[in-house]
Amino acid sequence: MSADLVTGRETWSSETPVPGERGLAPPSFIRATLLIARKDLIVELRTRTALLAALALSLLSIVIFNFAWDPTAVAAIDLAPGLLWVIFTFSGLLGLHRAFGVEQADRAMDALLGAPIPRTSIYAGKALGNLGLVLLVQLVSIPAALVVYNLEVARVILPLGAIALLAGIGLVAVGTLFGAMTTSTRASELLLPVLALPFFVPVVTAAAQATARLMGGRPVDETIGWLKLLAAYDLVFVAACAFLYTVIADE
Amino acid sequence: MTAPSYATTRPSRTIDGLLLAGLIAVAAAVTRAIWFTPVEARQGLAQKIFYVHVPSAFIALYVAFALLAISSALYLWLRDPRLDRMAESAAEVGLVYMSVVLLTGPIWGKTVWGTWWTWDARLTLTLFLWFIVLGLLLLRQSIDERSMRARYSAVLGLLAAILVPFIHISVYLFRTLHPRPIVLKPSAPSLPGTMLTTLLLSLAAFLLLFIGLMRTRYRYATDRDELLAVEGSE
To answer: Which of B83, B162, B178 would best serve as a mutation to test chain A binding (most A beta carbons within 10 A)?
Structure first.
């Protein structure tokens, strides 16, 4: 019996060779991870449910925030960094829930768990897919916010991208694990933000503070501390969550 | 219909002696703090809250949360249901102590600092631990299958312990880069003798109450699990 990982239609026993380019050996960790991420992104780009909802939410929030504060009293440059990161956090939550939610249908999760691939590659693939989703949302909403709030940031666009990537990895690392945990609980959509938001605090604080200093034209060494914090958070939580996922998936 | 067998396996406990002792000890400590300890010269009566606030904070963070983190980590290793019940009890009793800290803190803060709340490292950390423990109890509530509930809650408990230094560092960086007016915080070691004695007695009383509450909560969890096992086997 064979099956296509992209459609995930059939379960595999551990003896079943995996259809790869050579056709015999089970996929390596990296290959399995990439296959799962690719599958998730393809599904997402075809249905566009979470992507469009997250995009719409973040654009709407940018617009709504414009009316929630008095631009003559608070300059956009002071408010925009914090605002952007609050928006990313909330719109990211929409996508996180979907990564494992989509596997509930037809018990596709069982096929994934039964596949002859390391369990951590399921987590890594899901996280990578989520990261793609979060970065896509940021790719649209950061320029949108810059335009709407008239921010001059051409010179900091690259470091800003680096912060977005570092923070995105942190958010997704924890969010993917919590997404896996909450899909099998009652009230899962409500539980995910309650569990994940406290863990997002260091990421959002660091990202918003670093963004504010960049946009404000402060010297680079003022942002270094925050970037180090983001990098440390990424390292620790990617490792911890990848390991703990094997505990979660242990049926 | 005959009485179910589990009712006879252990004598019924109506009142837990340790819990009662803890309650009496706390009442005594509070009495001593209010009537038999001198009023602090600058802060006046507001400082009396110190004798409830500090012991609760100490026990919530260093005993309850530590117990939650350790029993969570050990559960993932040993998979002993007793460790899960320990984590469950520590989370629930710890949440009560953290709530006491978060409620008494602003009352004291308003009179002494002039503000209900400040984003100081300890305050922020306590607040977020409160949120996380609340989330952990909500998570437990929404899973029916026992071993899955234990695993998920242990994962969250362990992650919470990993998160603590990160919240601490981010709040610390936040404060050092944005200097604020220096907040005067009364420091314990410079306390006069009677006040220190009252504080230590109060700490002992709240610790006794904590142990009493833990034991009651743990026994409840044991009884509940036994009951579920009996019902499941019928």
So the answer is: B162
Low-confidence ranges of chain B (pLDDT < 70): 1-14, 175-191, 233-234
Secondary element (H or E) of residue A108: helix A108-114
Among residues 55-84 of chain B, which lie with CB inside 8 Å of chain A? Answer: 76
List Cβ neighbours of B165 (8 Å cut-off, separation of 6 or more): none
Q: How far apart are CA A161 and CA A165, in angstroms?
A: 6
Residues B229 and B119: their CA atoms lie apart, in Å, by 46
> How does pLDDT run across B210-220, given as a tens digit for each residue?
999 999 999 99
Nearest to A139 by CA among A193, A84, A179: A84
CA distance A228 to A226: 5
Cα separation, A175 vs A178, whole angstroms? 5
CA-based angle B93:A179:B158, to the nearest 5? 40
φ, ψ dihedrals at B3, nearest 5°: -65, 140
Select from A181, A198, A202 the Cβ nearest to the Cβ of B132.
Answer: A198
pLDDT of B9 reads 52
CA of B214: how far to CAs of A85, A119, B63, in Å?
40, 37, 11
Residue type, B163: L
What pLDDT score was predicted for residue B181? 41
Higher pLDDT, B86 or A106: B86
The answer to whether the CB of A171 falls within 8 A of the CB of A233 is no
Of residues B164, B193, B209, B185, the one with CA closest to residue B52: B209
Reported pTM: 0.84
Chain segment A197-241, per-residue pLDDT in tens? 999 989 998 999 898 888 887 877 888 889 999 999 999 999 999
Structure tokens at B189: 């070691």
Across the interface, of A187, A191, A201, the residue whose CB is closest to B167 is A201
Using only C-alpha atoms, chain B has a radius of gyration, in whole angstroms, of 21
Under 8 Å between Cβ of B93 and B213:
yes
